[in-house]
Amino acid sequence: MISQACATSVAAIHAAASSQQGSATGARLVITTDRTCNGPHLVYPRSAAAGGTPESENWVLDSFERDPVTGESMLSTAERVAAEGSWSKDEFDQVTVRRYEQYEDSLRQDRAFQRKWMVPITVGQGRRAVTIDAHVGVRPVRSDSARELKAVLPDGVISYASQTHPADGTAGMIVTAEAQARELGADGPFARVLASGFARVAPGTMPKAPVPAAIAALDAAGIRLGDVDVIKTHNPFVVNDLWFARELGADVAAMNPYGCSLIYGHPQGPTGARAVVELSMHLRSAAAAAGCSPAAPPVIPARPWSSRCSTRLATSPGRKRELRTAAPARRGKMTGSPDEWAPHYTDICVSPVGILR
Description:
Elements (H helix, E strand, L loop, with lengths): L7 H13 L6 E9 L5 E4 L10 E4 L2 H5 L8 H12 L3 H17 L2 H4 L9 E3 L6 E3 L10 H6 L19 E9 L1 H7 L7 E9 L9 H12 L16 H11 L12 H4 L6 H19 L9 E3 L9 E6 L3 E6 L1 E5 L14 E11 L1
Antiparallel strand pairs: 1-6, 2-3, 4-5, 6-8, 7-12, 9-10, 10-12, 11-12
């Protein structure tokens, strides 16, 4: 089991690919899930307290409000980077509206894009059973409504529109060798994991983390950002995308086709897995439109219902397709092996890279 907050999917795929490497048979099943919007409320007995009053905490929301190292909220880290970048609320609102327009593309033709990979789920039994086959709780973001919302902090630029919201979801995929993938009869889309990049940024600057991780991943894969046609990110705040685009020279308006976690919410565990599947579907559609017929390398994304995390997937000239995922995470004291690190505290970004042929 891997639990690394926003980077859970990325770390799980990386671990599965590492253990599968060199094996011509067998497969690794990656399943990610999270209940972020309705996370547990924990109660700790305190018999010695006045009246025996217990201690309590909200497992998810309290971590959003207070990083144990800096004592700051995630919102404060985003505002710090926004101030360093000198962006205005109007600029944030413009990118937020653009992200919702991209999400609307996934809803066209009766959700034709989403239906390729979203799996309906049934909750409950008998007459009380409820089937969920689409997103629930996603609100439209238009220019007027975004402009009317005030910044959350008195001197800030981030409103409730330009940050994500807690969400629930599950996503999965199979990691295996190419021959095994063909034997399983899967029709893809497929991706091959090439390399991983790891980077650390200063405490309280989480939105910056994808940049150095992306650079490390690109270097390890031997490719450049200029070879990338499509970029998908984990963006709990719009500033994540603005910082990434400014530092690496990407087109912020073109990033995140078909939506992103900023719009459809943030279940921490499955975020990255959904982004990998979503981008794989997008690239296969683009290849088909261009008359390409990609072969089948080793990662077989299964069908997720919902997820989110910082992921980038792209195509390069010559009908190659590159996939990168980047996810900021919070981890704890770094004792023991990396797999044993707890999902809190230090700003880290994990960025696996792959190629889809």
